[in-house]
Amino acid sequence: MAEQRFRVYVCVRVGACVCMCLGLCVWVMCGCGRAHPKDDFQEELVIRPLQSGDVYASFQFRTLWETDFMKGNKVSHYRLFPKSLGQVISKFSVRELHISFTQGYWRTMQWGQPFMPSPPVTDHRFLRYATLPREIVCTENLTPWKKLLPCGSKAGLAVLMKSEKLFHSSFHSQAVHIRPVCQDSECTTTSWELRQTLNVVFDLHTSGQGKREWSLFKMFSRTLTEACPLASSSKIYIDITDNPQGEQFELTPATHLLSQAVVLGDRRTFSVYDLTEANTFGSMRSLNLLIRWKSSEGDMLRPLLHAERYVAGYGLQTGEIHTLMYNYHPFRSFPILLLDSVPWYLRLYIHTLTVTSKGKDNKPSYIHYQPSKDRVRPHLLEMLVQLPPNSVTEVTVQFERALLKWTEYTPDPNHGFYVGSSVISALVPSMVAMDTNNTKERPLFSSFFPCKEESSYFVRIYTEPLLVNLPTPDFSMPYNVICLTCTVVAVGYGSLYNLLTRSFQIEEPNPRLAKRIANVIRRLRGVPPLA
Amino acid sequence: MGLLSDPNRRRALINLLTRLNAPICAVCYIAGVAWFMGLAFEPFTLRTYMSENAMGSTMVEERFPAGERALATGREFAAHKKRAGGMPVDWLVKTMQSRGLEVFTQKFSRTLPFPDENKERYMVKGTNVYGILRAPRAPRTEALVLTAPCSPGDDNNQAVGLLLGLAQYFRNQIYWAKDIIFLVNEHDLIGMQAWLEGYHHTNTTGIDWSPLQGRGGSIQAALSLELSSDIITSLDLVLEGLNGQLPNLDLANLFYAFCQKIGVTCTIQGKPCCPDHDADGNEASQRPTMGGPRAFFTCHHCWQVRTNDFSFINQILKLNNLLERLHQSYFFYLMPSLSHFVSIGYYMPAFGLLAVILLLRALDLWVQLATPPVRTEDGIADLEQSSPEVLSVLTPLVISHLTGAALYFFPIQFQATAVEHFPVSESEAVVLTAIAIYTAGLALPHNTHRLLSGEGVEQDWRVLKLIAVLYMAVLLGCTALINFSLGFILALTLVPMAAFITPHRPKVLSAFIMVILSPACTLLFLVFFFQDLQEIPVSFEDGWMLFLSVISQGILDHSLYGSLVYPLIALMVYPCWLLFWNILFWK
């Protein structure tokens, strides 16, 4: 094992040398380049024990590279930044890219707000926004994602990512975010930031066997022995905000390193474990964090903004989409932007759009509606709505289900058709500002105006996707239809044709047999026949 | 087609049909009844088979390890129910929460149009408790529903215990692809209706319900548990739906496949599955039979069966595997036994043979009307004659429908007045008013045409009968398509009456037969017949009381759940029958 690690080191050293050389070459050849572009890799894991007994683990890996893919620069040497992504960025001049693969639905009411929101079961991109609600995320998405990391899954935090454990969870979301960030305060040059995030929620009952006790080994079936050697920082944060004196849960091994940060408008305290320091691993040379609950009492702070969506009505003709948005702030209202993209085969009756809160009509200050075009583009509905304090705002719109052409049905059409989640973006007043509890000890000068930190923060939340049944024909029907139409045409057309082409003649009534014989005899006798 | 475009052969055919009309009708009737009886004969029916591939063979665990614990939970539930004197809402909420479900409650209230004496309720108030097991890594788009009604008395406690036991067991499994909703509903059907209406945010029956806080996407299938004893000796499958709607046959097939696998005696609607299992069927005396939430789900486009079932994890697992809604198998079928079914293609001919009688009679009447006895060659005289004809046909139509409307509206409208003037309770008042209007309808309308046209013409009753016969054919045809059993029973009694009633039959005897064959009397006979089939014969007096309660239940079912039988009988079938009554007394 040690030997293997050593070899990795060597490889990296060689890589670095080559990089230097190349940098020199460029400098020599152009005479205008700078020293080799600096890159930096950081990794961290945040664990938040949730009140329900579940545990939320969020990995973040950040690679920062001071280089510029734009302006025709041909970047051919890669160190920490994955080449496969760099090539895509330079080839298509991508400004920003966000892709997330999510399986499951973030249960805001139980788990609070996630660090990185993501739509349920989707793959989405900004600028060109798209979702694929029917895709399933599985191991084959995780493996290439892990390969983008400089250490792969060989060392550092990434060794924890065993797919059988990560997919044995209530929620799984992995994402790649690429964006340019400023290098300095003037923002004269930008560097590229690649953030890879992985969020998992482990369930108390299915993964934890009902015991309120979690450890790294129980969650990931691995313990940590080292940081990624390429990482400039490698840390584990445990959210202990609800547990300042250790009355909720017990954390072993203990650490004195604390860190405070304002996350989503709420000041949180974290215990920090620095993996780059050897004493973190203790005498056992491995770190297995253990969280053991002492009580199951206490309640979690509800998130201030919560949304849900469902389809009302039954049958296959009409229906109504209800979007409920909850503002739990006791005294402040705030505006939200609701973005809804509904496929064309649900024909929205936009005149039935209503927005009500507290039983009264709530007029949106801005509505943008782009009607759908059949088979070309979906409906796009954007609204700016003010949510009154402590209220539920309900947006309803009726729709009619269209009948598709029979080739347009997806496989398994009776499963229904997905409508992607609506996106709610809001500037939510900070929890710190909401804190009216004066019992907490704090300096007097800081408590006169309650707003100390930023007074509001940005939140984007996603509602559930919808599964809507469309009228679906019985697909053996074409055969029946062919049989039926053929019969009708044959019978109807046949008889009509018969009538049209037949020549009608007045038929002489057939003389009786006796009369006929008599006439034959009469003819022989030369007498005129009987009439 | 040559047959119809050739006037001679057409005439020959028509002559044949009119001449042999009565015998053909009789043959058709006998053939229809025989066909229907034949459906019970096994070689004539199809064996059930599973159409949905997703529910086929799957690797599932069939042991439910927590049976004892479920029984204990059931007993605990019973104790709390007794203490609370109704549904122990707080206890249920706490228990479900401790099992790791998201728990919500829904309050509902409903005032019945008149007091229900069978179940002793008038102002119904209740609470539904439901817990949602969220499927891991699924985006809340689909749901399965498991329900157990919280019945008054000692009934069904074990079902709730089993439900909670299953919830605990299921919570620890990882493989769920759909959310599972565990619902304990109060006031059986009313609670179920309130919950479903709340879930779909519709209000079709005027129940007051509080909106639901948690949902799980579109409901794919539902199972309802009823269980009142600790030891299970047999399982019973009850396929029921409002207005004759049935769950997809695959749901029943699933139950049958499961029964075969575990080798427990299985029955359908209380009848043993196969003749050779008779002996086993009889020992199943603990099998609970009682009213519970029937398949309301069918009208909300989700399919449900009710099972009195012990370890049907298997079924839930297979439903969990469903990729699509249940649609592969039949929706229109009859089940003579668990292993056999009759599809719509096989049972409709039985009804078709009965309906043909009406069409033949209509043809006969049409021919009679088209070839009037040679009286005048003058077209103008005919035209003059036709205007009173329209009136004399229209009047009985309007009057009989008005009577029908009165039968539909008055019993509930005037219950207060009736209670004031007569010493009866509200529900008796409603039923007796209905019967009174029904009987009064017999006396009312049948001589009106004489006031208008002076003298009834021979032609007029034929026109009226033609209309009445066609009306009945359409009416019964539509009913049989939607609800075959109802349509067929009505056809059995109404068709012979409709075919042979003319003003020239002996009045008293015909009137007697007509009354015997009228919808109300059919219902009365069915009450006795049903009791006989259940092997609990009743005396005439008890039967009459049952008949009264059946009427009041019918009216209640209509206003509570939107059952269509009462309005169908009152607004359509009864007026149609009155038309024939009118023809009988035509002068």
What key attributes describe this structure?
heterodimer; A: 531 residues; alpha+beta; Immunoglobulin-like; 3 domains; 8-stranded mixed sheet; 5-stranded antiparallel sheet; 23 strands; elongated; disordered N terminus; B: 587 residues; alpha/beta; Aminopeptidase; 2 domains; 10-stranded mixed sheet; 3-stranded antiparallel sheet; globular
Structure description:
The complex is a heterodimer of chains A (531) and B (587). Chain A has 531 residues and is of the alpha+beta class. Chain A has 3 domains: 39-293, no CATH class; 305-468, Immunoglobulin-like (Sandwich), CATH 2.60.40; 477-530, no CATH class. Chain A is 20% helix and 33% strand. Chain A is built from 10 helices and 23 strands. Chain A has helices at residues 2-30, 83-92, 108-111, 139-147, 163-166, 216-220, 431-434, 444-447, 477-501, 513-525, and strands at 39-49, 55-65, 97-103, 171-182, 190-202, 213-215, 233-239, 249-252, 258-263, 266-274, 290-293, 305-312, 318-327, 334-342, 346-357, 360-361, 366-370, 379-387, 391-401, 417-419, 423-429, 456-462, 466-468. In chain A, the strands form 5 sheets. Chain A has an 8-stranded mixed β-sheet, with helices on one face. A 5-stranded antiparallel β-sheet of chain A has the order 12-13-19-15-16, with no helix packed on it. In chain A, a hairpin with a 2-residue loop joins strand 9 and strand 10 (266-274). The longest helix of chain A is centred in the N-terminal third of the chain and has 29 residues, at 2-30. The N and C termini of chain A lie far apart (125 Å). The model of chain A is unreliable at 1-35 and 121-126 (pLDDT under 50). Chain B is α/β, with parallel strands linked by helices. Chain B folds into 2 domains: 53-274 and 295-338, Aminopeptidase (3-Layer(aba) Sandwich), CATH 3.40.630; 391-585, no CATH class. Chain B is 55% helix and 14% strand. Chain B is built from 21 helices and 13 strands. Chain B has helices spanning 2-5, 7-19, 21-38, 67-84, 89-98, 157-171, 188-200, 249-262, 278-283, 313-320, 344-370, 379-413, 415-421, 426-443, 448-453, 458-482, 484-500, 507-516, 519-533, 540-561, 565-584, and strands at 46-47, 102-116, 121-133, 142-150, 179-186, 208-209, 218-225, 234-238, 265-268, 271-272, 303-307, 333-337, 340-343. In chain B, the strands form 2 sheets. A 10-stranded mixed β-sheet of chain B has the order 6-2-3-5-4-7-11-8-9-10, with helices on both faces. A 3-stranded antiparallel β-sheet of chain B has the order 1-13-12. The longest helix of chain B is centred in the last third of the chain and has 35 residues, at 379-413. Chain A binds chain B through residues 103-105, 107, 110, 120-121, 133, 167-172, 203-206, 209-210, 308, 310-316, 320, 322, 412-416, 418, 464-469, 472, 491, 494-495, 498-499, 502, and chain B through 1-2, 4-5, 100, 102, 134, 136-142, 171-174, 200-202, 215, 217-218, 299-301, 323-325, 327. Chain B: Heteropentamer. Part of the GPI-anchor transamidase complex, consisting of PIGK, PIGT, PIGS, PIGU and GAA1. Interacts with PIGK. Chain B: Component of the glycosylphosphatidylinositol-anchor (GPI-anchor) transamidase (GPI-T) complex that catalyzes the formation of the linkage between a proprotein and a GPI-anchor and participates in GPI anchored protein biosynthesis. Binds GPI-anchor. Chain B: Its main location: endoplasmic reticulum. Chain B: It is a multi-pass membrane protein. Chain B: It is found in: Endoplasmic reticulum membrane. Chain A: Keywords: Membrane, Transmembrane, Transmembrane helix.
